[in-house]
């Protein structure tokens, strides 16, 4: 292989409740498909071969003239980032506007010379560090070490090399899409793929992580009640991240397709509709983290959220009165659930026919300012829904039409969308300055009422006829950019009028770069079903690999009125350990609506989330700094170079304790580092490649039902009904069970208990996990008391974690860096364990003058020989060993000066578990658990072999046996027609499908 980076109830009631409602689809207006599929492949015409080239000293741009008269323009943009532009013959070579890119081209530092460079540029004088070498077959452009752009002349193809392996190479330099009459219809480009290459990203899709072998649309779509397998959802992204160490970013919001080896298995092809020119970026790096850091620098980093956004946000369709808001908040508090925000759906302005009013419904909300103030004083923010549609029944209909603030027909008249589900409406033109100004005025007025956050719904837009026109063009041209333009109104308004306040915008659509606009997206109107739940992990992770770190779902499921306490419990367990926790639905989305034990289980995990706020908030800071998502796939790899790894980069003469200490006085979240010499640079590159290989094994590269929450927690949600044990795939290193503290070796799959009350959760050996006392609202969050678990382990002799702390609400700027960093460094070995805590940063108003820290070390088998604090013996009252829980606790105070805790003779129970074999198969949710004629029974085989599936009555009697032949690994289905062994239909009732000790509940209802 080439180097990769050099969960029952009454039967009838449940059946009736299983009939889905259409939620917000209450209109009888005619329906149409607003997203027609376009499958026909257009003919193409190539852009030609190399004819000549020029180099522009002032812009550091290389131009390639082709044999057809076209032009390719290539420009290094930043370290590891190259922009390529295509201009067919007859098209002017000019700057191409972008809705995504905010970074200006960077001046690169001096770099290494490429092997074979002859000492001087071919023509002109490139910027410092760049060198161009011409040969009969190719141009070699040496950029940042070890990057190199190679332009093959015939056939003309552009590639990028690193170390010196070709990361990506075009299969064709570009081509025009042609109409049947031969005229231009768009542009495209293709790239070669290696057989072992995996492809990730492409936005929100209910598909497996690895997108290789699929053909995908780039056109944002709303699919009500979607389930697992839906290929296109509300937020597509024109980015593809490769396991080989590069990302392709097609910088246009035009409709398009990504053919990721579907038509030709080793060709990646992009086609953009209606393009006269095309720009794309090649973004490379030594890790996924580095690539995402460069991509989010290019398109904008996500600002820190207000801290309340990481709390429990409760929503439903919908709270209809002021009194209902008070009652919901009070019931959440009485039931012992935390609460940080309530979301108001469309009833706040009067319901579906009043979309576009932007005014409180006075009968139901008589005093909104008082309501908002009262809720806020209890630590509960209020989030308001708004839509881009203005109903013809709206109070603002005449205004927006007369002032031309809406989309128009071809004659320039306001376009009425007759087929919108709520009734005839117009769509605001988010690209027209007066419309943007008018909409911001509505938001600003509501903001002054005390609104805490915003919910931007239907922003694809959900129904947008193709013959509508906007300031920037017709529907299809601007469709993907619409949600982005809408989000920009809020972001720009806050930056201008509330620059010290952090914005929260709950939106479901956008485009590349939406993260910089403080968008916290959700995955759309998901079915309230197990299939809907199963789609959420890959959706979240794929968005994270596209630079969007806060993708989440309507926890519990939105579309449908089925009440399934087990499904709700499993969904909320997962959401409590995700980026955003927001229960939402048509019926019973609040946790207090569920019976015991489900209510207590959800409460436990909601409390755990609030205890983990110091960790979660630090992950939010990391995301704002580097673009690394909060939730990460199993193969993501490290984002932190710990102190031990720094030592590996020093030459022998530099391996001196004083030098090592000086090199890392405060460990930080910086996953990148600079070596002290060329020798160290090569060592760093080799280490990056080694780590990437270790994490990109076949077992890790397409795991769709578990994720890493930050660097230290492995979350394995239960996404099958009735499942009480599940397989967990472990990355390299040791992993410690969060509940039992059992230790597992990495690089294997283990079977882990998953009772209803417990979601499998593991901690990386060596990790620091900072927690705080439970508070019912983040308004009471403080860091003056912290509990930090240190999972000391001999396999991790050195480890670190840096905790971030600020006031949780003020926008951070370079001119106002008001925060604290608490860096924890641990060393284990030779009978002595040390933990050092250092504080840095300028602090912030209200920051604690000192912090009381309880250091907890689990898996300790005996009391240590002694413990000191900065060399002085710890008082007996400040440390305690609990033999029952095998936990050592040490308490100390941390202020400005560093604190070092030393433990002598720490004895750890680090023996690894050897008897946790994985389940050989997983019996999955059936196609329908309640049926009259037949259902598909689904299962996935992990260990090939012959298995049997039994159908039992509620009393345990076997009525049907399926003896299956040898089964290969992979997914399988069989159909049960509701008949017994003799072929006679079984009577109505409850049955169980049983396979290898696993069970699925079935309900047969005869007519």
- Helices, by number, come to 15
The pLDDT mean sits at: 90
Question: Which architecture name of the domain at 307-632 does CATH use?
Answer: Alpha-Beta Barrel
Low-confidence runs (pLDDT<50, min 5 residues)? 6-33, 110-129, 641-672
* CATH T-level fold name of the domain at 307-632: TIM Barrel
Task: Name the beta content range.
Answer: 25-35%
Question: What name goes with the CATH superfamily of the domain at 307-632?
Answer: Glycosidases
- Helix % is 10-25%
- How many whole angstroms does the radius of gyration measure? 29 Å
Counting DSSP E segments of at least 2 residues, the number of strands comes to: 54
Terminal residue distance: 59 Å
Record keyword descriptors for this entry.
signal; alpha+beta; Glyco_hydro_b; TIM Barrel; 1007 residues; 10-stranded antiparallel β-sheet
Describe this structure in words.
The relative contact order is 0.08. The longest helix is centred in the middle third of the chain and has 23 residues, at 475-497. Residues 6-33, 110-129 and 641-672 have low confidence and may be disordered. The chain is an alpha+beta fold and 1007 residues long. It has 15 helices and 54 strands. Among the domains are: 307-632, Glycosidases (TIM Barrel, Alpha-Beta Barrel); 710-917, Golgi alpha-mannosidase II (Immunoglobulin-like); 921-1006, Immunoglobulin-like (Sandwich), CATH 2.60.40. Keywords: Glycosidase, Hydrolase, Signal. Belongs to the glycosyl hydrolase 31 family.
